[in-house]
Amino acid sequence: MAATEAPEKNICSRNGYMHVYPERSDVVYLKGEDSTKGYYFGEKRAEHKFCPNCGSSISVDPHGAFGGSDLVSVNVRMLQDIELDQLKIETFDGKNKIGPPYDPK
To answer: Whole-angstrom Cα distance, residue 38 to residue 24?
Structure first.
């Protein structure tokens, strides 16, 4: 399995994301999906889902906003029985490559 990890100083690295991008139909929550909470920031194109109890970042759901695909970003760190040191890690600079930088003004 290959995963992407964001460089420092963006929302993904701050939230501890290590992304994989499965099709929505391949994502199965064993429990707790109805308990997740979500928020949008920046251009509000993707919903960031997290656990309201511990604050862990679970996934990012762009709802087709990036090219119309039905991919969902899942944080590998939230998956059971995954050995992170066994993954092929690719760095992706989403802060500078996806749309204009967020300006909160």
So the answer is: 17
Asked if pLDDT for residue 97 goes beyond 70, the answer is no
Tell me the pTM.
0.72
Q: Name the one residue in this structure whose structure tokens are 């309201």.
A: 52
pLDDT 10s digits, 52-87: 999 999 998 888 776 777 888 899 888 888 888 888
Nearest C-alpha neighbor of 50 from the set 38, 61, 41, 33: 38
SS3 call for 23: strand
Is it the case that residue 99 has pLDDT exceeding 60? no
Number of neighbours of residue 20 by Cβ within 10 angstroms: 19
User: What is the C-alpha radius of gyration for the chain, rounded to an integer number of angstroms?
Assistant: 14
Helix ranges (H only) for the chain are: 11-14, 94-97
